[in-house]
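Structure (tokenized):
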């Protein structure tokens, strides 16, 4: 991507309180979540997602400056993130990573565009490790698509 000489503030993501835990949740019946006894996230989902966003936007080079906290100099854009769902769903003999995430791109405190990703990704095996791998791949795909969309949106 070509650098646009603009800046973006990537705020720490808001995560549905049910899922912002080091516990990895799974569901075998609708609306009932359990957590794996031995398997945990290495960090809170909000922190992991924030780090991924910062890294992805930094390496994309579409903005000159990517900030993670407010500074005296106002950013051209602000990205607000809301992770609504993150769990492992097991139905019959199939396994899925469920992710729902919403991004709001703001300029001058007004929403320029909202991007929503609602994914149900087939996991190769019904194991926590495979769920984590599938989730990481899904997040990478989401961030790639988000960066393309933001690049196209900020062309104006």
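Design, position by position:
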């Amino acid at each position: 991507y070509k650098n646009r000489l603009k800046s973006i503030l990537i705020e720490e993501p808001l995560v549905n309180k049910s899922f912002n835990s080091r516990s990895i949740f799974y569901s075998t019946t609708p609306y009932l979540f359990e957590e794996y006894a031995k398997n945990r996230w290495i960090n809170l989902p909000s922190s992991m997602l924030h780090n991924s966003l910062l890294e992805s936007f930094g390496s994309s080079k579409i903005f000159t400056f990517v900030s993670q906290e407010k500074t005296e100099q106002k950013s051209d854009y602000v990205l607000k993130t809301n992770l609504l769902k993150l769990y492992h769903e097991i139905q019959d003999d199939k396994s899925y990573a469920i992710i729902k995430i919403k991004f709001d791109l703001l300029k001058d405190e007004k929403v320029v565009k909202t991007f929503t990703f609602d994914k149900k990704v087939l996991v190769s095996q019904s194991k926590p490790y495979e769920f984590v791998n599938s989730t990481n791949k899904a997040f990478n795909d989401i961030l790639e698509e988000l960066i393309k969309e933001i690049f196209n949106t900020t062309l104006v």
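Reviewer-requested clarification: The longest helix spans residues 128-153. The chain has a mean pLDDT of 90.
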